[in-house]
Q: What sequence folds into this?
């Protein structure tokens, strides 16, 4: 390509497309979009080398609002399309935006395979525990009892847990953030992009129209400090207004307990240190659910392994090392005969 | 009755003897248990036959079960070959010779044998329990079942065991050399060279492997058996003279091979790398296997988690600026339809190969059919036109694949390429093409930001600009939601949707100006009767029409390659005949299409048995057309 890449620093605005954003006023998606615009500018990526691929749902409108390349595909299939793109163009930054219905219901199979295959794409799952675009049916992450047009007496369907699912698929990068926590989200985006292999980020997202306040139990200002645990690699898992609560490994049950430092003989030394390479801890953390436990946020697990497209490209390169194949020769190999 | 190993009974009172020398063409069918190595036997014999310069066509007829219990009729595998000194167009209606390696193989196949034909059977496999298991109540050799045929019984099992003894292989391995013993015998009967098979054995096993040695010995022993037993009369060696064909270098090619090579060739002509994304399915998988070994030809393959993902990954690759291809068969194609619609809406190139098989649902996975014409042309939600082209024979797949790539990239559209189970597995001698003989159709990606939007179109082809990620200044968004004609942005506007729908249709319809006019294969461009076919029915229709013309009938053969859009002149051409007969292996899909398009009162010769159309069936249908004037 002959076009000179301008060296000037891009701002958040440069990553916003000229399209009018059409989410409901007050939707959590706005904050995520804004965080992404800023985050990409901060990371210094080039819009022409960045692609957003989405499925179907409110969240999947995301690519239209990015001044990058974008592909709004079909319901549930974004991981497969992103896989095809990344396989053929490994040098591109490929982001995938999906929702709880798109990723965990109709597209569950593709998400599973993208994660276990460990293809280098960044998967952002906006989890609002509802079908917004189709007007409010319960979703695979809705809690039991959720009333919706399709469950007037309350859902009796046991919910899927996004991060638990991702870990079960052998994802090598699993993280969780909240729509309105722009700074933390920005960090997660940057970590996800830096991670070579499939990165999975669950974003707790408020659907103000069909499932408002579904996460208030841990997002409301009044309870946030007590109900959110922001984990950091190498740091103690301490939370709470007073910074005196923490997670302790119960060696009897092999489960995590919420303990209070200074009570029942618990000292800071008893609090577990987060090790993002430890899959057992990641498994325990991702299964914690409010209100009994705090919502765990941050990078829950990160332990890179060779990515799929790299291995494919290596095989292709090895086969091509001796120069390009000659079809004329190939077709004439083996048993042939002359007719004169 | 205890029969001698080399007992040959000349039985058929009314059957004509097998032609002895200077054969025009002869049809041999090998049949045995799926573990008997019948496919190898057949394909090696085909290879030997090709090398002596005969024209030939083969029909591998697989059982649906991979590991059916031995000795059962549903575990029977067969391989039919038709070879001769005149151009052979089909694998043959009726075998002249049937080799049955067990009673089940006899049970499944004897009824198809020509009266007076020769049955060679392995008497060593005709134990009471084998006979019962095959479904015979009494020994078919003794109750007149085979009275219309000539029967040669040889205890091939005993021969194979004996020959393999010195090599110390197990009894099981020894019995597995039966196929090569038969190959030796049949090669002697038809004067074929054993050299290519010997080379094959050496390649497969190496010089020192006892199993390889046993196989080689069996091959030679079968050959020697024919020679030393002086098989008299009508099974004496016959030579089939070579056929007069166009000069050049030839090879045997299967449809799957030439299709895979054609895709790679097409990508090369377009100046693109090829990404094949597929999911295993019978009978399409060989395309994946072949392309997986072609990485050095600019090919990347991806075995996806399912059919939908395969199609989507191919679309993702095309979006990235490669040639995305997905290959499957009926049920898999059904799963891909939503994604194909996305490629139609976003106007991305994509080649969808459909190796058709018997249906509906799982249907007959190993049998052939042409019943996916409707799903190819119409099988999507909404008005979603795409080009459809069909291959007529194994070798033809090469050119058809190139044409599919050309249309997909030139018109920014998915293209469906129809092959079928018969074409994919069958092999025929093929005049190997030279890449230099094909005109490249290099893709030019859009680079210029001036006046760009993703749906800016080429005035002539109506193809949209292909701008790929990574291109500075051309960042854009595409998607499944309707796009504005003038900007490519989302649009729910009524008039715009009408315009885009019309444009998508016009783009595909215009392809009719870019494809050859419909020609007539044999016969005049007007007259009493046209027999119209498409796809793998080419051989039987062509031969049947030639035969009927030789008998003085005014009948022509038209064979359609471009199914959608149809050639511009096809309607007028069909109307220039008094009668039109559509011969196809489905319940009347091309028939409906042509009646609908042209209001012609066409009639159908429709066959949906999982077996290829026979020459005699087409001849009968032609006769019936003339009788009903
Ligand atoms: S329905 Fe809910 S998720 Fe969808 S845009 Fe509106 S608020 Fe956002």
A:
């Amino acid at each position: 390509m002959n076009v000179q890449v301008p060296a000037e620093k891009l701002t958040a605005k440069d990553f916003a497309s000229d399209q009018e954003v059409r989410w409901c006023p007050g939707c959590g998606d706005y904050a995520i979009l804004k965080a992404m615009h800023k985050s990409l500018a901060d990371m210094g990526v080039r819009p022409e080398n960045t692609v957003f691929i989405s499925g179907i749902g409110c969240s999947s409108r995301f690519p239209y609002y990015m001044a990058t390349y974008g592909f709004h595909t079909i319901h549930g299939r974004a991981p497969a399309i992103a896989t095809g793109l990344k396989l053929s163009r490994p040098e591109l930054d490929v982001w995938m935006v999906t929702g709880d219905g798109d990723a965990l219901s109709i597209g569950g199979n593709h998400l599973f395979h993208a994660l276990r295959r460990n293809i280098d794409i960044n998967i952002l799952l906006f989890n609002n525990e509802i079908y917004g675009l189709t007007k409010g049916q319960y979703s695979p992450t809705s809690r039991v009892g959720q009333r919706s047009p399709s469950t007037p007496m309350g859902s009796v369907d046991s919910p899927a847990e996004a991060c638990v699912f991702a870990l079960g698929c052998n994802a090598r990068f699993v993280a969780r953030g909240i729509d309105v926590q722009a700074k933390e989200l920005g960090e997660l985006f940057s970590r996800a992009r830096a991670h070579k292999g499939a990165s999975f980020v669950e974003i707790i997202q408020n659907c103000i129209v069909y499932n408002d306040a579904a996460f208030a139990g841990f997002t409301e200002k009044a309870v946030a400090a007590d109900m959110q645990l922001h984990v950091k690699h190498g740091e103690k898992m301490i939370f709470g207004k007073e910074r005196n609560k923490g997670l302790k490994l119960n060696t009897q049950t092999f489960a995590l307990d919420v303990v209070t430092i200074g009570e029942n003989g618990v000292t800071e030394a008893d609090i577990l240190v987060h090790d993002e390479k430890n899959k057992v801890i990641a498994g325990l953390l991702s299964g914690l659910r409010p209100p009994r436990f705090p919502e765990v946020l941050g990078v829950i697990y990160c332990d890179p392994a060779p990515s799929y497209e790299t291995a494919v490209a290596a095989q292709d390169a090895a086969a091509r090392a001796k120069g390009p194949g000659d079809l004329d020769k190939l077709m004439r190999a083996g048993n042939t005969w002359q007719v004169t | 009755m205890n029969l001698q190993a080399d007992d040959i009974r000349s039985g058929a009172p009314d059957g004509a003897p097998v032609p002895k020398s200077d054969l025009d063409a002869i049809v041999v069918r090998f049949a045995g248990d799926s573990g008997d190595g019948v496919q190898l036997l057949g394909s090696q014999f085909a290879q030997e036959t090709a090398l002596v310069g005969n024209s030939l066509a083969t029909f591998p007829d697989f059982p649906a079960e991979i590991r059916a219990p031995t000795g059962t009729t549903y575990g029977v595998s067969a391989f039919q070959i038709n070879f001769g000194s005149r151009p052979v167009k089909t694998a043959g209606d009726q075998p002249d010779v049937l080799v049955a390696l067990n009673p089940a193989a006899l049970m499944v196949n004897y009824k198809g044998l020509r009266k007076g034909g020769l049955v060679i059977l392995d008497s060593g496999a005709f134990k009471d329990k084998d006979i019962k298991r095959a479904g015979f109540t009494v020994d078919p050799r003794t109750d007149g079942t085979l009275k219309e045929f000539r029967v040669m019984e040889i205890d091939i099992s005993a021969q194979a065991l004996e020959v393999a003894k010195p090599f110390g292989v197990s009894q099981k391995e020894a019995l597995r050399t039966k196929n090569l013993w038969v190959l030796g015998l049949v090669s002697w009967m038809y004067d074929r060279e054993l050299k290519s098979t010997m080379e094959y054995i050496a390649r497969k096993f190496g010089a020192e492997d006892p199993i390889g040695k046993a196989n080689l010995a069996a091959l030679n022993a079968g050959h020697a058996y024919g020679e030393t037993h002086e098989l008299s009369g009508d099974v004496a060696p016959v030579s089939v003279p070579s056929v007069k064909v166009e000069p050049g270098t030839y090879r045997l090619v299967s449809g799957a091979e030439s299709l895979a090579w054609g895709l790679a060739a097409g990508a090369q002509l377009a100046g693109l790398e090829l990404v094949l994304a597929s999911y295993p399915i019978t009978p399409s998988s060989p395309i994946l296997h072949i392309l997986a070994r072609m990485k050095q030809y600019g090919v990347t393959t991806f075995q996806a988690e399912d059919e939908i993902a395969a199609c989507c990954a191919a679309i993702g690759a095309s979006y990235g600026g490669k040639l995305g291809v997905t290959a499957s068969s009926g049920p898999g194609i059904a799963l891909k339809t939503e994604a194909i619609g996305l490629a139609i809406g976003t106007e991305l190139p994509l080649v969808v190969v459909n190796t058709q098989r018997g249906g509906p649902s799982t249907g007959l996975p190993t049998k052939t059919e042409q019943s996916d014409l409707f799903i190819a042309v119409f099988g999507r939600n909404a008005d979603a036109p795409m080009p459809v082209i069909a291959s007529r024979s194994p070798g033809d797949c090469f050119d058809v694949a190139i044409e599919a790539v050309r249309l997909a990239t030139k018109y920014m559209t998915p293209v469906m390429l129809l092959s079928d189970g018969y074409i994919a597995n069958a092999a025929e001698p093929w005049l190997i093409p030279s890449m230099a003989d094909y005109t490249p159709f290099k893709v030019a990606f859009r680079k210029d930001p001036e006046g760009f939007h993703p749906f800016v179109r080429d005035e002539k082809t109506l193809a949209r600009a292909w701008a790929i990620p990574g291109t500075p200044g051309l960042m854009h968004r595409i998607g499944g939601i309707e796009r504005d004609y003038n900007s490519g942005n989302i649009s729910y506007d009524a008039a715009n949707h009408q315009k885009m729908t019309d444009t998508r249709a016009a783009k595909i319809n215009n392809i009719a100006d870019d494809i050859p006019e419909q020609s007539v294969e044999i016969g005049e461009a007007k007259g009493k009767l046209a027999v119209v076919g498409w796809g793998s029915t080419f051989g039987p229709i062509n031969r049947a029409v030639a035969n009927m013309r030789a008998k003085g009938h005014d009948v022509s053969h038209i064979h359609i390659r471009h199914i959608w859009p149809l050639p511009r002149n096809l309607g007028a051409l069909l109307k220039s005949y008094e009668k039109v007969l559509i011969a196809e292996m489905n319940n009347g899909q091309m028939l409906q299409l042509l009646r609908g398009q042209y209001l012609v009162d066409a009639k159908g010769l429709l066959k949906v048995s999982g077996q290829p159309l026979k020459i005699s069936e087409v001849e009968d249908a032609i006769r019936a057309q003339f009788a009903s004037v």
In short: The CA atoms of residues 52 and 70 of chain A lie 5 Å apart. Chain A touches chain B through 62 residues (CB under 8 Å). Chain A has two domains: 12-235+274-312, 238-272. Residues 12-235+274-312 of chain A form a domain with the Rossmann fold fold (CATH 3.40.50.970).
